[in-house]
Design brief:
This protein has 159 residues and is mainly alpha-helical. It has six helices and no strands.
Length: 159
């Protein structure tokens, strides 16, 4: 049952990201709630469920965005796989380690996505690229504790 509650959480995050967060952006950057859900799934679920939930989050992000379909699905799968492998080697128990790790994942995700868009011919200015990449990644890392608390509250209510 915990998996189905997390699926509902991913859907809620997708709807929030596509609607309300467009009005709560800082310098045209908003947190990536679906990337946060991928990180949470990869850290707290068994590998098969984590990858399945990450692919689901990627499909939702591709559906709700105007980007080329499939980019987020592939990236979220790769991030989930990487996090699962790294979580066997590194302990993510400290909040500071998690925040730095999430910031790094978010900034790499933004850079890779923007480079794919650049390769496909969607040019944006360097200033806008750097601002969205850095502030969006920082915003995502700072929102992570709130999203994690929300997910933990839902899973406690379920038990």
């Amino acid at each position: 049952m915990k998996h189905f509650i997390f699926i509902a959480t991913i859907i809620i995050f997708a709807l929030l990201q596509a609607t309300i967060l467009n009005y709560v952006n800082i310098f045209n950057a908003k947190p990536d709630l679906l990337l946060i859900s991928v990180i949470i799934a990869s850290l707290y679920f068994e590998p098969l469920w984590a990858i399945s939930l990450s692919i689901f989050a990627g499909v939702l992000k591709d559906i709700f965005s105007v980007n080329v379909f499939g980019i987020n699905t592939i990236l979220f799968f790769l991030w989930s796989f990487l996090i699962i492998k790294l979580s066997r080697e590194i302990s993510f128990d400290s909040n500071y380690v998690r925040l730095v790790f999430i910031f790094i994942i978010a900034i790499l995700n933004n850079i890779i996505t923007r480079l794919i868009f650049l390769f496909l011919g969607n040019f944006i200015s360097l200033g806008l690229f750097l601002r969205i990449t850095f502030i969006g990644s920082l915003y995502t890392a700072l929102i992570f504790p709130l999203a994690l608390k929300f997910v933990q509250t839902l899973s406690i209510r379920e038990q």
